[in-house]
Amino acid sequence: MKTKKIVALMLSLAMVLGVAACSKTEETAAPAESNAPAAETEAAGETEAAPAETADATVDVSAFNELEIADVTDEDDDVVVYGFNEEVKTLIEAYSDITVRYEQQTSDTIQQVLDNVLASGEDAPDMFACDAGYAAKYMNSDNTLAINDLGIAYAETTEMYNYTLQFATDNDNVIKGLAWQACPCGVFYNRTVAQEALGVSDPADVAPYFESWDAFLETCRTVKAYNSEWAAISSTGDLFQAYLNTRSAGWVVDGEVNVDPVMYDYFDFVKALYDEGLTHETAQWTDAWTADMSNGTVLSYWGPMWLARFSMALDPSANDTPNPTSGDWGLVAAPGNFYWGGTWLMASKWCNSKASVAQIMRDICIDTDNQMAQAQNGEFVNNIAIMTQLGSDSSFALEWLGGQNPIPVLLDAATLIDNSTIGENDTKINDELNTVVAGYLNGQIASVDECVDAFIAAVEDAGLV
Which pairs from 51-55 meet CB under 8 Å and 24+ separation? Predict the structure, then answer.
């Protein structure tokens, strides 16, 4: 049996469990000034502070292993693309002249479908899209082609955020996929709820309420005390990525299950929220969780721009049924820099339309005019120069974010993203963790140590390590 690697319980337990809950006030009571965090911020406009300088204007692509650049043509004019939602199809239609046959799968079934068609070649796609949870599985296999095999040189990718290229490499450090977006995260907050519960609504004034985990815990208590039917977050799961993607090591280290210390903090923090009744106890992606995005009872949702644009439906141009509260939201920084998700385009080993696939990748992920158009629609695109430019542009604003320029909030996180902790089986391992967390919250598991033991056992039993 593999040795279990358990990291010592962090001191944050005392922080999250040792603070007494604030007493509730009448729902109609005005927020007291003493609720404000001690930290003060200077007055700022909706564009907030100027973005920090990025570490590098361009990426040093010489760090990657580049193959000979192929001279490619199409052997077939039937270009087949697989995706797990409509986004890739929409991007191709908007920004490329290549006609494709798009096969849409679901997030739950796409891996099984891909595994079957890539093994046999029957009905296999020329190109397919994967999200961060399982993309490495295909990049590290012989089922995908290097971008050099499509005729794409690394010199074409020097404006991309380095982590998007690092993540797209195989075990030989060869780049095998491209992303059109980067996914730094922040906290999207409802301005009306903030004004009523906290007494402030502008980003510069709301930011201190989220500047640390201590401050956020007090914010949760303040919102609940103002109105017992409200909550600072709908689900404890809303914080999962903020902890998961700030780990220093992944789930599997040297062939054994590894639980990074920051995940102990996650156990502690969500248990404190649950025990004090500070969330609506919904589950992410359920109808109840989605309803809280527009019913005016939840202060915040945590994530990248794609969460706000599509999941929250705040962007009217990207949704048939926009969120009626669009325009009543703002963005502030989370307690720590984190990211969530991302989508990579890869060519399958069965690709016989290499020239067309390469053109689609260039049109969506590289072409600066198309990337700028995406950014102006609210996408955080995978182009350092474009995002830095828009982040410094005082005239750039998104109406669906109340006239705010969100980019300065996200630039630091984009530069600091490190997804080296992601492994090939992370989606399944994360599911095992969330099952254990649910048991801990409802009392079926008594302690953090027992949670860790149960989690490690579940991962091992599932054959994920």
Answer: 51/388, 51/391, 51/392, 51/407, 51/408, 51/411, 51/412, 52/411, 52/412, 52/415, 54/384, 54/388, 54/411, 54/415, 55/415
